[in-house]
Amino acid sequence: METAATGSEESGAAEGPVEAAAGREDGGCEGLWELPVERCVRRAECGRCSRPQKVCLCPFFPVHPLKVSTCLYIIQHPAEESRVLRTVPLLAACLPGDKCKVLIGRRFGEDRYPELAAVCRNSSTLILYPGAEAANLEEVALIFPSPSTIIIIDGTWSQAKDIFYKNSLFRLPKQVRCNALT
Length: 182
What we know:
By secondary structure, the chain is of the alpha/beta class. The protein has helices spanning 8-11, 17-22, 88-94, 114-121, 137-143, 157-165, and strands at 71-76, 100-104, 125-128, 135-136, 149-154, 174-177. It has a domain at 62-177. It contains six helices and six strands, in the order ααβαβαββαβαβ. The protein starts with 7 loop residues before the first helix and ends in a 5-residue tail after the last strand. It comes from Platysternon megacephalum (big-headed turtle). GO terms for molecular function: tRNA-uridine aminocarboxypropyltransferase activity.
């Protein structure tokens, strides 16, 4: 009584790709290495604002860098560098190079960043970071009409908090906050 078909060949059904691969020793990977690989081509970026050239914002920037007396130190979390809405390059494009310094990282020790350490120890340096001890920036502006340096932490709230609390240097300058507009 051999009337029941047990395999796909015996039943007349066509063998599928999964079944065919299962029967091979190489697991069905033969020829995969010859498949063409598409190269990822990035859109051309503007060298000044770091935006794709099709949406370059440079025509909206000042022709010449703004004249400012205060130096900004932007402490940028590494994850912010690759975000789509990068605003730090926009700010840097509008200010003179010696007035806007961008440092990217999570940890900033005195030995690795001696210039930043000296800036943090300067009595006229301010750090923009909210907190119980932070003074209103508008009130501080009356006391320090032109602070020499303002340190700004660029990141999400949790990233900024991590940077602020894990770097003792950032607790040396006077802490200021911006009050909400009323």
